Amino acid sequence: VARDGDQPEFLQAVREVFETLQPVVEKHPEYEKAGVLERIVEPERTIKFRVAWVDDEGKVQVNRGYRIQFNSAIGPYKGGLRFHPTVTESVVKFLGFEQILKNSLTTLPMGGGKGGSDFNPKGKSDAEVMRFCQAFMTELSRHIGQFTDVPAGDINVGGREIGYLFGQYKRIRDEYSGVLTGKGLEFGGSLARTEATGYGVCYYTQEALRVLRNDSFEGKTVVISGSGNVATYAAQKAEQLGAKVVTVSDSNGYIYDPNGINVEVVKQIKEVERGRIKEYAERVPGSEYHEGSKGVWTVKGDIALPCATQNEVDGESAQKLVDNGVTVVVEGANMPSTPEAIEVYQKNGVLYGPAKAANAGGVAVSGLEMSQNSYRLSWTFEEVDAKLKSIMEEIVANSLAAAKEYGHEGDLMLGANAAGFVKVANAMVAQGVL
Ligand code: NDP
Known about the structure:
single chain; binds NADPH dihydro-nicotinamide-adenine-dinucleotide phosphate; five-stranded mixed beta sheet; Rossmann fold; 47% helix; alpha/beta
């Protein structure tokens, strides 16, 4: 802790996990002997680099790039790249640490890593985004590879950016391999990767509702934050499963649509036009736009799916959700709930699905993309979707089994942390002190 005192997001993520691991560590004295806890919080490698690029005015811009290769006990480092002005070493480390346990939960052989840059793509031209991606990959390319470290997308890194990054890697290394996931379908991408995180969140929710409450999405009102990749496809799947989604948001404000969000309009505004969510209200009669993204948590509903960013639900917002009838909160974004919010869920018997379990569908399908690249073939949408669904159901089952084993029956948070951790810890013990 002393070593990372200036990294609040990282410490928050570690504290949340370690608080739940007490019964696991008590049952496994070999972990203490092997120094597993001390080792798992120290990244195997932290890479920080300068990214210099030229903007459309001919001016040189400088950003900072990161890649944190956190843990390779169960597979090559795997985790997304985030481009956002709020990216710091602390943010990348919290995401990388979560990724270790998340990837373990998918049942696929992937270690944990994460990266990104404080580059802000808002208002940048397509050519500027391309030049930034090329500059970023010029440095990153020497540290990654299909058997070493396989990055993917995250906030502001979608199909366009992955395309530019992949092209530059191929040019520099003269090698055509599955070094990135989330690629275009023409060059090694997997069907259903775009939908995977959002769909996975809903498959997870549906399964947890079935097992713990004998219930489903059918007839429920759903409050969603964000309007990016995760939010859009969570909304689409929730609607397919019989729910009505009444909100989406961005960092400026939120949309309330009492008739149910029209996902096609969201996709047109966000994916095609790269516009702001405000425009939804100008196009869909009966919907309203409200300034301020936090207001989304004051909307009445049964199920809340935070799908935007970290710490977007604080204690006060969580209390509002509960007061308005929400009894299920499942996280699409990484660490969207503050510790105070989680306390509110626990006090009020909310069915709480933590991010590292609920949003693991994205990286799971990335793992399937790696398999397809290795086999040099591609599966159909239906095949990938069916595998995704069964992985999400398995994550619920494994989390509940671990929760029971460690004396906290029904606790999806403790269960996810324990199940994810044990597999990595066993591998670390078996491989000796590294
Ligand atoms: P996108 O860039 O596609 O979308 C991010 C969305 O969140 C945008 O609507 C953005 O609005 C909004 N947002 C960002 N910051 C804030 C903020 N401070 N307040 C309110 N809204 C905000 O990213 P993704 O959908 O890919 O990622 C969303 C979350 O899901 C992240 O936590 C990410 O780590 C997590 N995740 C993503 C996975 C994936 O496969 N993509 C996999 C697992 C987790 P604006 O346009 O205004 O910035």
